[in-house]
Amino acid sequence: MSAQQAYPEQSYVNEVEAALAYHDGNAEATIATLLEDLRFLRQQLALAEGAMSTGMTRGWRPSYERD
Asked: What is the residue range of 21's domain?
């Protein structure tokens, strides 16, 4: 499921505008922040994966890439 399928178009545009507004319209700073967030969340996912037992998740394993 793509981001546009998950969110109505207007909501998605508003999120992009909000992210850019947070950085005063600086697209490079916005992208840098999003990449930093991505790295942090991947690290958190790896920690959670290590702490979960396979039985607890009934065999489910997290994915680090979109399908």
From this structure: 3-51
